Each structure stands twice: as C-alpha cells, then as structure tokens.
Amino acid sequence: MAMVDAGGIRLHVQRMGPAGGRAPHATVVLVHGLLTDSLASHYFTVAPALAAAGLDVVMYDLRGHGRSERPPRGYTLDHNIDDLTSLLDRLDLTGPLHLVGNSYGGTIAFGHTARHPDRTASLTLIESEPATAGWAAKMGRILRRVSTELARDEDAALAWIAAHRGRHTARLARGAARLVRETTLGRDIPASRVLTDAQIRAVRRPVLGVYGGDSDLVDLLPLKRRLLTDFRAVVLPGHEHSVLVEAPGTVGGHILDLIRPGAGVR
C-alpha cells in the first residue's frame, strides 16, 4: 500500500505483480467506479488473476473514495483524468499501458486515452461508456436522485439498502452519501466537459467492452461500433451493472485475451 501525491492530491495505490519476483511483461492499470466503489472491487476480483498471468497490476482509489484524499470540491471528469495522468507520471508509467475501467472508471480511462493515445496499448470498458452529452445527462439524473432520496430520509434509504442489498452495501452507501453531501461531486460530474464524436473516433487503440446482458448499456453498442474502429463487445447474459463482481473469472479471461497479443509492449 502507498499514498502517492498525484499533482496536489494524495491517492491510495495498491500494486500486484507476478509471484516469485518474476519481471512483469506488461502493465495494466485498473480504475474503479463511482460512489460505492473503490480499488477493492478490482483487488478481490480480476487483479489476482492478472498478476498471476505475469502482469504488473496497478490499482488506486479515486479522489474522495476509499483511502484517497477527499477535497471538498474538484470532482469533474477532467479532475479525475488529470489525477490518473499525474499518478502514472509519478509512478513513472509512461506507457503504452493497458487500461481497464469499471463503470465511471471506464469513462475516466477513455478520457485519458483520448488525450494521450500513445500512452495506451489497449482499453477495456466494463459496463462503461465514453463521456458524451447523453452520459452527462444520465449522470445528472442519477446523482440528483441520490441527493434527493438521501436528503429526504437518509436513515430510511440506508435501511432499505441493508434489507434488500445487504449490510455491506449499506455501509458503502453510507460513505457514498457522505461524499455527495460534503463535496461538490453531485454538481461537478454532470457539468463535466464531454467528448465529441470526432474525439471518440480518434481513439484507435483496441477497445474491449464487457457488459451484462440485462444492462441498459447494451443499447449503446451500435454507437460504439460506429465510432470506434477497433471495438469488440462481450455481453454476458443474466448479469446487469455488477458484472465485474458477479463474473470476475469470465471478465478477467476476456481482459487477458485482449492483452496477450500485445503482451510484449510495456
């Protein structure tokens, strides 16, 4: 475990590597999702298998999440992309790197790739999408609903989550409620700068999309196929947005299938 100063914000970082001191043949950076997520969602799912396959695995908590610093403001997508870029610089990981993002983490990873295409070898989006006007509007609706329900009766909302999703999820939701209540995240993310179609088309690295068959993001696959020149989608039936946690072996296998052809690039 390490705390790294990434351009004025301290981020919690974890790394895994091949057993026995073997030199890794490539580096993969895992970026987690929003509010109830942290690097733990990767640490306990795909990270061990990626490390066992000979990869240097880098995970970190986004600003405001997990053990990373929680500033009161500064939560736009650009802030998070800047954090990722600065963190990679501080770790001397100049690329090309394999980026894997779950949910909002994929949006961050895609934004980094759009800015720095030469630093990315491949990109995996798990239940994720690039930042578009439609994405910003959807995030605004979700965050307004979270804020409204918590403002109305936070204890009742958390009790419902505990009863229907379990106590662990309720604990995560309590932390998410504090993040929304005490920072500008709920206003910043919907107001983030988004990508144009031309900027999305300019991403010409291999992109893998992994989606639950029951997720609404499946409806966006035709758009991704139209805009991305090297895009492959995997749809896992019977899963929704939590496909990373529900099917980590399958998801990890598809990530490795993407990375292995370019495993010599570091």
TrEMBL record:
Any Pfam family matching the protein: Abhydrolase_1
Molecular function, one GO term: hydrolase activity
Gene3D superfamilies noted in UniProt: alpha/beta hydrolase (3.40.50.1820)
UniProt entry keywords in alphabetical sequence: Hydrolase
InterPro entries from the UniProt entry: AB_hydrolase_1, AB_hydrolase_fold, Carboxylesterase_BioH
Stretches assigned to the AB hydrolase-1 domain: 27-144
UniProt protein name: Alpha/beta hydrolase
